[in-house]
Amino acid sequence: MRIAQVAVHVEDVDRARAFYRDVVGLPHLFDAPPSLSFFDCNGTRLMLSPREESEQRASSIVYFDAADITAAHARMEAAGARFVEPPRMIADLGTREVWLAAFQDGEGNTMALMSEVVKA
């Protein structure tokens, strides 16, 4: 099965919508009452929803596939993203390398860019 949708809980949906649209660069699909916002991640929906009072602060990490992690990092950083770590290789799989760059969204959730680079 493929993942159809991932929910990210946020404190401020308007602020989070602006971050994922303007900084991450995801296509905004629609908003739904009372305060949900949806984005397209290449066929998987990302849903931003308010955190309930009883929910813990922690969230899952969403790894965004970046064809060119260096360019994506530079674009997002210029747009105001706060990176926890710059792009770095985390695994050598023989024929390719896995690179990650972790960032925090405007709500304090940790997310990451991920890229698998074929070795020359």
Describe the fold and architecture.
The chain is α+β, with helices and mostly antiparallel strands and 120 residues long. Helix content is 18%, strand content 43%. Strands 5, 6, 7, 8 and 9 form a five-stranded mixed beta sheet that branches. Strand 7 and strand 8 form a beta hairpin.
Strand runs, count: 9
Main sheet record? 5 strands, mixed
Question: Helix tally?
Answer: 2
Uncertain spans: none
- Helix-strand sequence: EHEEEEHEEEE
Mean pLDDT: 90
Helix- and strand-based class? alpha+beta
Shape: globular
Strand content is 35-45%
Provide the gyration radius in Å: 15 Å
Summarize the amount of helix as a percent range. Answer: 10-25%
> For the terminal residues, how far apart are their CA atoms?
33 Å
Describe the structure concisely for a colleague:
With 120 residues, this protein is of the alpha+beta class. Helices cover 18% and strands 43% of the residues.
Layout of helices and strands, plus pairs?
Elements: E1 5-10, H1 13-24, E2 28-32, E3 36-41, E4 44-50, E5 63-65, H2 69-78, E6 82-83, E7 88-92, E8 96-104, E9 110-118
Offer a few descriptive terms.
120 residues; alpha+beta; four-stranded mixed sheet; 2 helices; 18% helix; globular
